[in-house]
Protein 1
Amino acid sequence: MSSAATDDATKAPSKDGNSAPEQNKRSPSDFLKAVLGRPVNVRLSSGTDYRGVLACLDGYMNIAMEQTEEYVDGQLTSKYGDCFIRGNNGKQCLSERNFSINL
Amino acid sequence: MSNRILPLELIDKAIGSPIWILMRGQTELTGILRGFDDYVNLVLDDAVEYSPDPRDKSVVVKKELKAEILLNGNHVAVLVPGGTGPEDSMAARST
């Protein structure tokens, strides 16, 4: 009742987590596998955004990006061809985004 | 004994339902929890971020992220399963 089931992914939360169907559950590593090579938006905890194509990343969440654009307070401040973001920079979130449509 | 619930079990039960996340600092997020790992990195759908405006910290800016996101667990402070965000709790406080 409280959580209106909007699509099939939200219905029937299984009692035992381990047997949950794949589409119901997406761990962070599944997410990262899915967005590798895709356009992403990486936000540091400072609020700075880096938008580009995710080339690779490791267990520290160090990130290599291509065609990177740096946005401070939403304003484009610089562009980098290749860029490395050290993992401990307090990344806040990484979102998959279809730039050609949304931005 | 058997009615003891581990913290991560509680979060596991919240998968597929709305969750409210309070970060260290003033940022809060809501969204549908899709998954998490041992670091409490979170995958969220339909995430909405509530963060203080960089120029005027007393103003909270609401931003719909409009994508599936990965939230780094580093700054996660509190998780509220079923929580729908600061707007509801503000309303509750004012009554």
Protein 2
Amino acid sequence: MINVKNLKKSFGDNEVLKDISLHVSTQEVVVVIGPSGSGKSTFIRCLNMLEEVNGGQVLIDGKDLTDKKTNINEVRTDVGMVFQHFNLFPHKTILENITLAPMNVRGLKKAEAEEKARTLLAKVGLAEKAAAYPDSLSGGQKQRVAIARALAMEPKVMLFDEPTSALDPEMVGEVLEVMKQLAKDGMTMIVVTHEMGFAREVGDRVIFMDNGYIVEQNEPKALFDAPQHERTKSFLSKVL
Amino acid sequence: MDFRFDIVTDYMPFFLKGMGITIGVSLAGVLIGLILGLFIALGKMSSNRWIRLPFNIYINIFRGTPLLVQLLIIHFGVVPLFMSPSNPLVSLVIGLSLNAAAYIAEIFRAGIQSIDRGQMEAARSLGMTRVQAMKLVILPQAVKRVIPPLGNEFIVLLKESSLGSVLAAPELMYWGRAAAGQYIRVWEPYITVALIYLVLTLSLTYLMNYVERRLNTDDQR
């Protein structure tokens, strides 16, 4: 589904991703952990070309995103993304936030898009908020709307860039619950997070990144209980 | 000091006619300036430096030189190349539009760039093109933020249209100077003209405040 080969990315002289290769299969849930500045957010942003890459290849569903001839907008319709700071459109209602892209990008009729949006809102437990504006929602509710907005495009993959890092602690659970359900439904997911409990419970595979490299990857149980590398051990000893 | 109201009443029809032209010229200047300004703002934000360059030069020239100089060059130099005789109203509208476009472009650019980068990223991540993201997500939010500085610019433009009197464009100030010349009086014509300008700018201020309030209540229920 996703195939990353020797990915490199620098910001000026600062080499953030040094040589990342990763294969993610359909329906797999991959959780990326690592200290701040390890490049994990940059990495996930490279997977839908929100960051231009400097070397290597990113293939999604066989399409090479680094190829100039690939229609990046088309690929992005298949790759949903959820951001740390939600990035809901404040001038649109919750319903409009969700229907905007399906109507304008996929060409759905308004009635059709709204019906689907309401179904998704019900799924994330916010059916009654359809007519509200993002400003009136709590952080956890905003993030759940953001997930529904991404799902409305019927993506094949979902990327989560620290989806709970900007939330009050008591709201983290409701967002993780929605993500858990999504994983159960068979969505292919890549999740950058600091929620080790989530990684352990939901992840099929956990990746530990540091300093621009993938240091170690394994099944959650193996990685958390018996880390192989010194760097992984010291990181886990601090966060667990 | 005796204030001769008869001068004011004598010239009132001309003042009113001039006021109409002042309003018309300013409106035309604002409308053309808005369209050109948006275009220049988008051009100046291009990621290609060679595309940015001409827009930068344009803004620097029109912001960096006095409007009066621009008007004289346009009226006596540029417009005669296309029409003869040169029409002062045409020159005035061209000058005001081109000048306002430079300022409005900067207002638009600031407004657009003040929108959080995450908005563009969210829109693009959903598969929208740059143009769709601009049109559907960025510009609607930017419009709200540029209303106050745009209102300012409209007021400036309305007052600057008085420079048209130098080109003998028959706007409000032109008739003020005509009255002053005919009666050899300073207070009556200029005070009257000043008061009319004040009424116009205050009405505009009120109108802009109203628009601002409307836009605010529209979005935040």
Protein 3
Amino acid sequence: MHDAYIVAAGKFLPGDAISNGDMGAYLGSIDNQSERLGRLILRQNKIATRYYVPSKNGQYQYNNADMSALAANDVLEKSGLNGASLDLLATSTTQGDLLVPGHASAVHAALHRLNKVGPLELANFQSVCASSVMATKAAFLNIKTGCAQNALVTGSEFSSRWFQPAMYEAAREKLENKEKRMAAEFLRWTLSDGAGALLLQNHLSEQKNNQNTAFKIDWIKLISLADRFDTCMYAGINGDERHVLSRPWSHYKNGPIEATQDGSIMLLQDMVLLKRILRAWVGEYLKLVDEDIIIPAQIDHLLCHYSAHSLREEMIKILKSTGGMIDEEKWYSNLTTKGNTGAAAIFLMLEEFMEKKIAKAGEKILCVVPESGRAMVGFMMLTAQ
Amino acid sequence: MLDQHVETRSNSKLVEKTLRGLTVVWADFESRLEQVPIIAKINRGTLTLADYQAYLLNIRQQVVDGGCWIARAASNVSVEYFDLRSTFMRHAVTEHRDFQMLEANYVATGGTLDDIRSGVKNIGSEALSAFMFQRASQPNPFGLLGAMFMIEGLGSRKAREWGLLIQEQLKLPDEQLGFLLYHGEHDDDHLAEFEDWLSAVVHDEATGQDIIKTARIVGRLYALQLEEIEYA
């Protein structure tokens, strides 16, 4: 078995940082109630700036695959690796640009335009935030087993397209329901766009060793709890039918237009279920603590993805009484400045963390990526080189 | 209690470990509840009034014993844990009227006192109640702190959550939901005391493990009690 290292990280964020007050100019306006809830949600998630693909006049300069490719190109430029040397491209996103074919193919094609990347192996992961961990694990295992020497991992989100007023218009009356309204607005005022990328290799170059931060990947674990939990964050089904998935968007007699009118094409989050799932995530973390797989006192840096600051507070409350807490000064996050970018978030966090050269050689970095979609949580343990 | 607490601070790691184990057991239990038919109905908004009445009737048969097993446990706590004995007794007093609220809620929904009082324990309630009394009959039955952790958790985390969900889907007035809504408001105080109780009794690994195991058994049997409701 080979060792696997994260030798470089890249990013792409579209346009300028958008302040809370300017969000409406980019997302458009649904109604006054939406703006009021927006202010409340922003106080809870504590996000101050984020990035959006659409310009103020609604022009789209990039698609999701472009953003992945631009972040991938950034990592290739930083590492100095020739794109032709890549063996594997593993992508992750919540929703690619097309229904068919997969996002990875589009990213590969876009990366070819940017960097002459030729034929290589693809791995295409679609879930929500934790798809980033799936993609990283695929690359990690390929490197470990010697199937790849140079593997590129991307995570990207184009969330803002879900939040344009036209996406809600056909089923506006559904938003009259208080619970559905909150389910829609929480995501609308929390998620944003961007892409991150990692380059994994089976070795460290001399130069890398001396000058730049690199991380050895010790282990990656991903645990799904979909065996017990209902769907929590979803699109493609009328919210009332999400529990049994009886009628996805494609099953309507009169086709996708009827599905849209029935509210099947909205991105929604069950806020009540989210709280229950949060305790299950913490439970999975504490199991790893109990098994001495994670020893909180030995963690030097915690990069934990969370969708809103209020959820962080909730987790800390449980961790403090159970000996599972990692001191808050060891937590690193850029949620407030780069927003919640879903599958891109952990890569954008790692990119900034590496750029700032925060970790010293030998230090342990724990990455935690919970996903509410249908209850999942990913963990990655890294050692700074 | 306070004196004991100061003396036993050296066991803080053991207390943390016990609480960690209990939190893991709780998380497993809570996620298991998602799959229990009557709870899934509450979560999915498909509960009927008959389901709610069946819930009240089934739960009442075990809650009626609630104060009793804690009182029996109190009577088996030796004098060196005198303060904990007092706590158990106080706790028993607060619990032992709970079934009356269940009965009142049942009647308010249109059921009769005779019906709910003549109900029998379902097999989950039988197993749960028998287990509690068996444990409570042992000398210094500190494992039951694990049982209390689960029961308190149901009160502080689940009862109000279920109460509000049921209220929303069945449009019931407060007087039909007192048992569920009341618990959410009052049980937080009990949980705050819990860490002190653990500090007083957990001085070795085995005691902590016994508390955690007891909690796991109680969770499993409580879920069984709820699973059996549809077939009662």
Protein 4
Amino acid sequence: MRGVERIQEAFARARAAGRAAFMPYHAMGYPDRESSLAVIHTLAQVGADLFEIGIPFSDPLADGPTIQAATHQALSQGTTVADCLAMVRELRTAGIAQPFCAMSYYNPILAYGEERFVADARDAGIDGLIVPDLPPGESPELETACREAGLGLIFLLAPTSTPERIRTVVAHATGFVYLVSVTGITGARDRLPPDLVAFVERVRRFTELPLAVGFGIANREQAAQVAAVADGVIVGSALVKAAAQGLDAVRELGRELVTGTQVPFST
Amino acid sequence: MTQATASPPSLGSVPDEHGRFGPYGGRYVPETLIPALEELEAAYLEARNDRAFQAELAHLLRTYVGRPTPLTYARRLSEHLGGARIYLKREDLAHSGAHKINNALGQALLVKRKMGKQRIVAETGAGQHGVATATAAALLGLECVVYMGTVDMERQRPNVFRMRLLGTQVRGVDSGSRTLKDAINEAIRDWVTHVRTTHYLLGSALGPHPYPAMVRDFQAVIGREARAQMLDPQTGPGRLPDVIVACVGGGSNAIGIFHPFLEDRAVRLIGVEAGGLGIESGQHAARFGDPRLGRLGVLHGTKSYVLQNPDGQIALTHSISAGLDYASVGPEHAWLRDLGRAEYTYCTDDQALEGFQLLCRFEGIIPALESAHAVGHVLELAPQMGPDEVILINLSGRGDKDLDTVMAALGEDLGEGGNP
């Protein structure tokens, strides 16, 4: 099983276990090539359900300082798109079975060649794509290529999204829908916005697809808050920060976050 | 370069409803911004057909900006070069020193009258757009934050102080190349975070739809005035120019002067990019001029020509002029180039410095280093043309802000000097 089916299966399995999917992001090539592979292995061991494989871009305008700095470092060490796909292949060979969603910006994919990128990503073991600066409809070519290859193409929704916009986005989405918790950029935050529950419920009325929430989630309590309303909990910056301290820090935070997804949040 | 088709489309009909100029343009932004862009598009379309809004803008342009800006015959420079007669559209005489005010005031008025927002953010490279935005914000009573790369803050210190005097908060950007590209990244991040209360006052004919069309329309006042001034024997040669030359960073002054002449097919339109230290050096901002690094790409919300490495990472650019030091170019320029309606060339730092000096000495006009690129190209072009032919240069800004840079490049001691 691969592609969008592997993504669906990950959500189904988490749901059957009565918890939300734990979906860590990591910037490939950070802090260096081997360490980034070790971060994925570590998070797989503590119970990640799906990985976002960050492919660095020089101008990440949806990202806050933590991921900016990490991807900048990865690039300055020579990390390329082809390298990231090679790392994915190594992870598959080493037995990592969780779905992988490549997360990058549109320009590196366009430069690689959209069809070629989808084909190579699929061969390497990628199951879906997340492209934060590509709203639905802007690239029919990429949407077609993903559909034909059986890869999920994940679109984002934001608290500012209107009902018309939600309808459009979910009509294009496959795999799951990525809900941005805040109006803003990525980065750990002290607390989640109070209107998050209403936002998730608003989107839920329009789609059966799993809803995963990201941006700002940094600890067990926040993960639990999100797990109480959504199907997936995405954590990026907090784990990237941990990766700078070493694998023990990643393991510790990973365990804490997994616990969060298993504890129904009660108010 | 693709040649114009046998039956050229109406050039004024772009962009389409998706913000596309042929294959260029579009709206490549995080989803959070989509509602804001839709709201901006609606407000802009409404304002475009709103007589009261247009009258208020025209009044401000006349009584505050000082429009129409003059058309000046550059007699001594023309004689020195010994070819075509050269006219200058004097955007350097617009209030705040450059064409940037046309767009800044237009958007700020839109925010004030149609959008109900109180806060604007902007990016700036040379500081001219930042100063124009700070000026418009002061005039209309809006809160204003300008992002500027710390490298640019250093080379444009007087403009940083100007903005602060005008009540704007200038925030230095220390990421990436610490120039215009990074200032735009940071302005967009601010906008995403405060989108419900904040308008992004983008300074060039770039970015996601509707910015390229809206900025063009606010800048087209340059070309409308210039066309009338050229045709009127009281203010100009009494005929259309044979060639129009403008510098192209993002390309707002160029698209502003080109647009009203698009249907005058006999008028050649030439955009001049920053050739920096030369194309071979890789140290430049010539998106069209360097086929190795300049390829189709997406940066800051729009599809156009982008300087990038083979892996799609945005290239670092160089120009002596901060305002041209940018890796992408407005999508409509890419489209006009494909159609064969406009041509693009480049001018190196050294050629621009020569144009800068000659305009100072022969005409008593100190141009912005950006505009000096247009002059630099004309130094080559004019001698190849006859005295019965006419060149129009868009002199997009004045050069006071660049004196430190020019002093560093030329040395403070210019020698004996003296007027030739």
